[in-house]
Amino acid sequence: PAKLKGKVDVYAAELKATAQALKEGPAAPTAQTLYGTILGTPHFMAPEQARGDIDSVDERSDVYALGAVLYMLLTGKRPYDKAPLQNVILHINLPPLTAIKDLAPNAPPELITICYKALETKQPDRYQNAAELAREVQRRTELGQLLRRNARRVD
Q1: Measured in whole angstroms, how far is the alpha carbon of residue 86 from the centre of its chain?
Q2: Residue 36: is its pLDDT beyond 90?
Q3: Using an 8 Å Cβ cutoff, are 91 and 121 in contact?
Q4: Is pLDDT larger for residue 154 or for residue 119?
Q5: Contact, 133 vs 114, CB < 8 A?
Q6: Cα–Cα distance between 115 and 126 in angstroms, integer?
Q7: DSSP assignment of 67-134
Q8: Which residues does 100 contact at the CB level (< 8 Å), separation at least 6?
Q9: Do the beta carbons of residue 148 and residue 142 sit within 8 Å?
């Protein structure tokens, strides 16, 4: 379940315990059924969400997930697909993100730029909410179409 902005998360303690147990690994003394086990797909979780930093989860966390979806739509692969799952969950020791152009040479450059910004590790570097991301998709795709039309006229 999503956290409501400005509301206390009634599951915050359980989520923090889960995040701590994940950091300690499978031999952790609390390696019983953990709260929520993990809700969601780790490859689509924002770093702050995966860390269990509930107070930091906000609209920008959703933007990260949208960036991960866009990455998968463009490339057919999840972000950090080859990294060990525990590293993905904790967002530690991750290899550099495989360049979209390497996986999908024909991907629209406008969407690549948007995807990378949405997947920024630091929240302030992402779009501030899904509406801002949507406006940027609209603006950049319209600009890209205009540039491609003008390039065809020149050819």
Answers
A1: 16
A2: no
A3: yes
A4: 119
A5: yes
A6: 10
A7: HHHHHHHHHSS-TTTTS-HHHHHHT-SPPPPPPHHHH-TTS-HHHHHHHHHHT-SSGGGS-SSHHHHH
A8: 71, 74, 75, 107, 112, 115, 116
A9: no
- What are the two backbone dihedrals, phi and then psi, of residue 54, each rounded to the nearest 5 degrees? -55, -35
Q: What is the pLDDT of residues 57-102, one digit of tens each?
A: 899 999 999 999 999 999 999 998 888 888 887 777 788 899 999 9
Give the long-range contacts of residues 88-93, CB within 8 A, separation 24 or more.
88/42, 88/43, 88/50, 89/22, 89/38, 89/42, 89/45, 89/50, 90/22, 90/23, 90/50, 90/51, 91/47, 91/50, 91/51, 91/121
| Residue that the structure tokens 């920024």 belong to | 120
Judge whether 56 and 123 are in contact, CB under 8 Å: yes
**How far is residue 98's CA from residue 45's CA, in Å, rounded to a whole number?**
17
Encoded tokens for 44: 């689509």
Q: Alpha-carbon distance 126 to 128, whole Å?
A: 6
pLDDT at 106: 94
* Whole-number Å distance between alpha carbons of 57 and 45: 10
